Amino acid sequence: MATSRKRYSKKASDTVESAMRRRKRGTLRSGSGGKVTSRKQAIAIGLSEAREKGAKVPRKATGTRKKKTTSTRKK
Length: 75
Fold this sequence. Notes:
mainly alpha; elongated; 41% helix
């Protein structure tokens, strides 16, 4: 059975790598101008920049959460 997983282009990974390097140097800034120290935020910024450059980046996952089901108990 083939598993489907997200595929990122080489260009996208290069952009994320660049953002991570800028975070380490302390030059990476968020949209509001604040200094970025979070690893997750640096990755998100890198992916966003890659999207702007036209790199192959899977769409953002929005509204894909499963609906919670309530279990019924037997008495």
